[in-house]
């Protein structure tokens, strides 16, 4: 202890380099594991359960639900079942709502005629505002009212932490934080909220990964697009319950693809721009608890579905009006909207879609909920006005515009992978305070969306599938 | 009369803050840990005419310094060296709580395990053999129920005797794999040469091996602060391989 002070850094540095040469990546895990094993042994010795307690049940369930063999299959089956319920359950109320709104639209038109309102007013308010909003409500409300309660029942039961536990290995492989699986799960609800929820990740590097990749899981603004297109086009050759099954499988495929892209992008970033090793963390697995079922269902339906819907309508209503106006102001014999569409069309065709779809995605930047309504309005503004009172008639509109399964698939892929909505981008800026990373959060997904749809379109065309 | 310093460590939701409030009553104040956005709660209490300063460390599941909370708790135990560190544990989740206790026991000898929420454990039909645990772990174990104010006196007595040096502990050391133990043996003597007996050499050796360089920065600052306050610090910097 008589070394001079200046020697401290030097000897510390020597020590560090010695330790670094001895150290390897496994040591961190090994230390955590050894301590954990000792804790378990000690608690086995010192703690005695006299009652057949909850602890026992939780442990037994965890042995299955988080097992290395059964963990993933069970997760996938759960996901599939949720989708199946959502689609099977949403069909009937969706078309009932659509019918009701079509009838109301008829009355409104009659009313406008009766009071002798000018045609443009009827156009803006009924064909623009009312029809756009009605579509958002009838397409989005039923799936949400089924999906959210099931999702929150699982969460309250204590299953979500197990999902995070299972996914931890994958995210660690990708150089990301295990908690990213939780923020990802939040993204299924709303990417904008999920970006805020990344605050649970302490390391700035891993948090950035979670922010940049959150967009690759479909938020509830995009669920309706995916569900609608999957059920209209992908399950075309099937009928009845097998059609529902195929739709559910397609959706599951979309989600898995989104997760895969999340992992690949995280991996790439953590090897390049955001280099580093994942920190380890302790995830508490709370005991399973039977949720208050009625309570959860009501709160999920009211809180989540209602709030999301409110947002959708608030954004969709003005967007519907603006789109209608642009679609009905003519320069020469072409509307402003059509100039825009024609300009985008070659690019859209290249990606297996068309100018309308790309225009809808661009105008849908404020909120993903309005992409389908804008698209419909675009299509309907051409030629004769169609009364849409059932989902199958919706398909005719698309097919009349030259849609194939490839168009539907690529629109789904583009919806899954493209840039986050305006609110999410705003939140990303708020959280990162960096224009550069906000731009990256826009550019990375968009590049991937364009790349993937370009590949599928080129492949399908060269193989003569369409 | 100098005041003994007692730290409260523990997992979140173990009733640590309930205990803190029970002991200190209104004699507490909160602020932030220097340079951190982590809340620091400190209070005092008197037991047998002796004053104690109680520091409520942030609730954490581990002390690997993954987060600001963990770093604060870890640095306080290692570098501030409280007279006693009380690990508050949830009796209904002993396995998870022992995890943290074992980590604390690697860092300091002056540990008391305080098993809280005994009332809940009994309701769940659990029996905890505190004496067996104390034997195996080589540190005092006290069972309490902070919200029912049960076992508080025993806890305060145990703290008193440990602070006055009347208890000698032999904290249980986790044994790692032969391979890792070998590596520890290789560098522990050198660590001891630098830090002497004032910091836990084995624990620092482990952190060096698992690549925790943030600790080294803190360690260096601590050592320099202690040995020569007048030394020019311009060229003294550890190159951290992070």
Which characteristics define this entry?
heterodimer, A: 466 residues, mainly alpha, two-stranded antiparallel sheet, 19 helices, B: alpha/beta, Rossmann fold, 2 domains, 7-stranded mixed beta sheet, 8 strands, 43% helix, 19% strand, globular, disordered C terminus
Characterize the structure shown.
- The complex is a heterodimer of chains A (466) and B (242).
- Chain A has helices spanning 7-22, 26-46, 54-65, 71-114, 119-157, 160-173, 180-189, 191-197, 204-213, 223-234, 240-271, 293-328, 336-350, 355-363, 371-380, 391-400, 405-417, 422-432, 435-462; strands spanning 47-49, 330-331, 334-335.
- With 466 residues, chain A is mainly α.
- Chain A has one domain (67-462).
- Chain A is globular, with a radius of gyration of 26 Å.
- The N and C termini of chain A lie far apart (80 Å).
- Chain B has two domains: 4-163, P-loop containing nucleotide triphosphate hydrolases (Rossmann fold, 3-Layer(aba) Sandwich), CATH 3.40.50; 178-227.
- In chain B, 43% of the residues lie in helices and 19% in strands.
- Chain B has helices at 16-24, 68-80, 94-107, 118-123, 130-137, 152-163, 178-195, 201-209, 213-227; strands at 4-10, 28-32, 39-47, 50-56, 84-90, 111-116, 126-128, 141-143.
- Chain B has a seven-stranded mixed β-sheet, sandwiched between helices.
- Chain B is globular, with a radius of gyration of 19 Å.
- Chains A and B meet through helix 1, helix 2 and strand 1 of A and helix 3, strand 7, helix 5, helix 7 and helix 8 of B.
């Amino acid at each position: 202890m008589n070394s001079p002070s200046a020697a401290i850094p030097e000897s510390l540095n020597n020590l560090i380099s010695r330790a670094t040469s001895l150290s390897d990546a496994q040591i961190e895990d090994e230390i955590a594991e050894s301590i954990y094993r000792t804790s378990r042994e000690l608690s086995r010795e010192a703690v005695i359960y006299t009652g057949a307690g909850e602890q026992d049940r939780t442990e037994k369930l965890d042995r299955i639900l988080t097992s290395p063999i059964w963990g993933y299959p069970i997760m996938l089956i759960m996901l599939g079942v949720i989708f199946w319920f959502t689609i099977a359950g949403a069909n009937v109320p969706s078309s009932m709502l659509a019918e009701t709104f079509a009838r109301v639209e008829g009355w409104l038109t009659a009313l406008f005629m009766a009071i002798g309102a000018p045609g443009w007013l009827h156009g803006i308010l009924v064909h623009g505002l009312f029809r756009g909003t009605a579509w958002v409500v009838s397409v989005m409300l039923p799936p949400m009212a089924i999906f959210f309660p099931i999702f929150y029942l699982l969460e309250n039961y204590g299953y979500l932490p197990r999902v995070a536990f299972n996914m931890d290995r994958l995210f660690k492989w990708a150089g990301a934080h295990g908690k990213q699986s939780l923020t990802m799960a939040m993204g299924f609800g709303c990417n904008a909220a999920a970006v805020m929820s990344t605050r649970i990740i302490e390391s700035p590097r891993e948090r950035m990964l979670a922010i940049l990749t959150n967009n690759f899981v479909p938020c509830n603004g995009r669920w309706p697009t995916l569900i609608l297109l999957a059920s209209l086009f992908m399950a075309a050759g099937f009928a009845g319950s097998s059609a529902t099954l195929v739709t559910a499988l397609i959706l599951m495929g979309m989600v898995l693809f989104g997760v895969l892209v999340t992992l690949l992008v995280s991996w790439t970033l953590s090897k390049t721009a955001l280099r580093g090793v994942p920190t380890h963390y302790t995830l508490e697995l709370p005991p399973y608890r039977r949720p208050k079922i009625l309570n959860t269902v009501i709160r999920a339906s009211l809180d989540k579905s209602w709030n999301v819907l409110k947002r959708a309508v608030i954004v969709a209503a003005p967007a519907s009006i603006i789109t209608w106006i642009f679609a009905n102001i003519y320069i020469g014999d072409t509307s402003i909207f059509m100039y825009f569409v024609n300009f985008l069309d070659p690019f859209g065709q290249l990606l297996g879609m068309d100018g309308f779809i790309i225009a809808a995605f661009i105008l849908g930047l404020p909120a993903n909920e309005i992409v389908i309504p804008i698209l419909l309005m675009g299509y309907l503004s051409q030629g004769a006005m169609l009364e849409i009172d059932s989902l199958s008639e919706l398909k005719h509109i698309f097919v009349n515009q030259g849609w194939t399964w490839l168009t539907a698939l690529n629109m789904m892929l583009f919806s899954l992978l493209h840039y986050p909505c305006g609110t999410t981008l705003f939140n990303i800026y708020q959280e990162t305070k960096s224009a550069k990373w906000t731009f990256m959060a826009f550019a990375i997904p968009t590049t991937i969306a364009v790349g993937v749809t370009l590949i599928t379109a080129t492949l399908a065309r060269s193989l003569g599938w369409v | 009369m100098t005041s003994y310093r007692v730290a409260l460590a523990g997992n979140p939701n173990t009733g640590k803050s309930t205990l803190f409030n029970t002991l200190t009553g209104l004699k507490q104040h909160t602020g932030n840990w220097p340079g951190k956005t982590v809340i620091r709660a400190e209070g005092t209490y008197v037991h047998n005419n002796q004053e104690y300063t109680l520091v409520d460390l942030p609730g954490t599941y581990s002390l690997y310094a993954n987060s600001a909370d963990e770093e604060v708790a870890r640095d306080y135990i290692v570098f501030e060296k409280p007279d006693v560190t009380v690990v508050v544990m949830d009796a209904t989740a002993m396995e998870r709580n022992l995890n943290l206790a074992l980590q604390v026991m690697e860092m300091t000898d002056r540990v008391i395990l305080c098993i809280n929420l005994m009332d809940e454990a009994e309701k769940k039909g659990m029996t905890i053999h505190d004496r067996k645990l104390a034997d195996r772990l080589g540190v005092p174990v006290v069972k309490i129920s902070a919200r029912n104010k049960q076992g508080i006196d025993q806890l305060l007595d145990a703290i008193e005797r440990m602070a006055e040096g009347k208890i000698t502990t032999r904290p249980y050391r986790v044994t790692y794999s032969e391979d890792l133990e070998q590596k520890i043996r290789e560098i522990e003597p050198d660590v001891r040469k630098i830090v002497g007996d004032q910091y836990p050499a084995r624990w620092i050796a482990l952190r060096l091996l698992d690549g925790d360089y943030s600790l080294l920065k803190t360690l260096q600052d601590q050592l320099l602060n202690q040995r020569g306050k007048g030394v020019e610090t311009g060229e003294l910097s550890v190159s951290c391989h992070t």
